[in-house]
Design goal:
homodimer; two-stranded antiparallel ribbon; Four Helix Bundle (Hemerythrin (Met), subunit A); 4 strands; 9 helices; two-stranded antiparallel sheet; DNA-binding; 2 domains; mainly alpha
Chain lengths: 242, 242
DNA sequence: ATGCTGAGTTCTGTATACAGCATTCGGCAT
DNA sequence: ATGCCGAATGCTGTATACAGAACTCAGCAT
């Protein structure tokens, strides 16, 4: 476990105000500890370190992360607003339990928001990036791939797709929802598990954009989401209910 | 200023774990201070106590609210994730500045989400509540009314409209966004300012639902949002930019 | 055996303390 | 007067301390 900050010199006067991490050399990125903690938690969530519903011992977790309870709690409260964590008065924080229904709910929201983002993007920009979208889609056309790889590629591709969306708030919401959704996916399929993909769907969307047919692209995007969702869904017949 | 908890007895041993407020008699609602603080801040925001962009002095505000900095900060961090508050490393928290563009952005998102909520609601439920929706709409058909009154009525009406939406997450997001949007509105129009309304739009939506035509209702809902947005927008020609 | 009661333990919720950054304001050079 | 530098101050970011819930489990009554 790599602590968020310092460590290794247990009794040294802690260097407050963590000096940030990699970035452009002279930028000296300084972020609040709570944000670094949040990132670290998300990172570890991604690695499947925590299971849904698992309750959190603040003292233990804070120690492991090498920070005090304060920034940890602040990170947890922030994550709570994102729906990744739940809290109950007197019982503290827990990683939110996952369920099929919530997965469906989240997907529905994400479809609506990405559609909106695409529809309100500058058409000129869309035409401009269409070739790249197409190229990327063709470059990664494997019908089978590990889930982790798919996820990374998908995120990058969708990020490019939405790069023309000027609605900042919308993009933040989409990013946040995607994080949550990834967590749901991870519960179902392991990071290295091989999954089938519908590789041509991205090509299809890109092609629509090349043709300047945004409406059609939106439809294709929705289909892409739906099929992706179904690929995940059919993996969880056992623990279906709830 | 009414403190969130206790007060009036400055040096009495504070009664920890605030005993909640009104609720069903034997329920004894106990909520974390941070949540009470959050509600209180939202309340005061609603009253126009804070101006957008205003920076927050944690010590002062905490004293005014009658709590320590810890729960206040936790409330602020939570509000930050909702987009109502901004923070900058070393400079603390500020009420998020408002701008025309963000108002438009938020409205666009809200339209998309409410449409989704309506489309995915149980049609049977929609038919069932349609008469009430119609009755409510007719009961409040004044073409002019104070902004505060409109807002309360509108919220109640829309809440009823979406009462059949089973997507919990979606409803939470809608509620949260509405809160933010109200804040934007308040910047533009005073609480008691008289505003024109398009009273018949709600009737129209209800009528569509009575007829069982959800698609048409969605269209009408979108029109309702757009016209409401425009009524607010035309109020801010002066400080337009940004 | 089962259910209730109460002391003990653990952990959360809140308050307070402390250290360093940011800002401000006066002094000096230009 | 204007602009730069440095001490002083105020405020934030983080750590720690403390009080009171919730949970655990042994002991007793039924």
């Amino acid at each position: 476990m790599v602590p968020v900050a310092r460590r290794m010199v247990p009794d040294a006067r802690p260097v407050r105000y963590g000096t940030g991490k990699k970035g452009s050399p002279m930028a000296i990125e300084r972020r609040p500890l709570r944000e670094q903690v949040k990132d670290e938690l998300l990172e570890q969530l991604g690695r499947g370190r925590f299971t849904p519903g698992e309750s959190i011992n603040e003292v233990h977790l804070a120690e492991e992360l090498g920070v005090s309870r304060t920034p940890l709690r602040e990170a947890l409260i922030s994550l709570e607003r994102e729906g990744i964590i739940t809290s109950e008065r007197g019982k503290g924080f827990r990683f939110a339990p996952t369920g099929k229904q919530e997965f469906l709910d989240l997907t529905a929201i994400l479809i609506a928001l990405e559609s909106l983002a695409l529809r309100t993007s500058d058409p000129a920009h869309l035409s401009a990036i269409a070739p790249r979208l197409l190229a990327e889609a063709r470059a990664f056309s494997a019908p089978l791939a590990p889930h982790g790889t798919i996820e990374r590629y998908d995120d990058a591709w969708h990020a490019l797709l939405l790069s023309g969306c000027a609605n900042t708030r919308l993009r933040e919401m989409i990013d946040s929802l995607k994080l949550t959704l990834h967590r749901y996916e991870r519960v179902v399929v392991g990071d290295h598990e091989i999954l089938e993909r519908a590789a041509e769907e991205h090509e299809r969307i890109a092609q629509c954009l090349l043709d300047g047919d945004v409406d059609q692209a939106v439809t294709a995007l929705e289909a892409n989401w739906t099929s992706g969702m179904e690929r995940i869904l059919e993996r969880l017949p056992p623990a279906a209910a709830r």
